[in-house]
Amino acid sequence: QDLSLLATTYLRTVYGMHVSEQWDQHAGLVRRRTIERANSDIAKMGRKALQEELEMRFGGGLSDHLSKEAKVNTMAERFYLELRQKYGS
């Protein structure tokens, strides 16, 4: 669950989308740390460059006609699967 939350929070932060604040204490900590990491990456690379890199890694084959929400959700799921393969759980 942490990996899924991390992936979704990271992508939503990079794309400037709302991140829910209704979490238990542990999930809130994961969310806050992930937002800090995303903001640090944005500061280093720039939002547009980071979005382009994420789209190259996780956006392959997605239709240009998808809504931003659908695109980010699909990319977050792909990011989660990569994290799960790398770290387990």
Order of secondary-structure elements: HHHH
Provide mean pLDDT, rounded. 93
Cα gyration radius (Å) = 13 Å
Parts with pLDDT < 50 across at least 5 consecutive residues:
none
Estimate the strand proportion.
under 5%
- The total beta strand count reads 0
Helix content: over 70%
Determine the N-to-C terminus distance: 8 Å
Shape category: globular
Largest sheet: none
Strand-pairing-aware structural class: mainly alpha
The number of distinct helices, counting runs of at least 4 residues, comes to 4
SSE order and pairing:
Layout: H1 2-14, H2 25-45, H3 47-58, H4 68-87
Provide a brief overview of the structure.
The chain has 89 residues and is mainly alpha-helical. It has four helices and no strands. Helix 1 (2-14) packs across helix 4 (68-87).
Explained architecture:
By secondary structure, this protein is mainly alpha-helical. The protein has 4 helices and no strands. The chain has helices at residues 2-14, 25-45, 47-58, 68-87. α1 (2-14) packs parallel to α2 (25-45) and α3 (47-58) crosses α4. The longest helix has 21 residues, at 25-45. The radius of gyration is 13 Å and the shape is globular. The N and C termini lie close together (8 Å). The mean pLDDT is 93.
Features:
mainly alpha; 89 residues
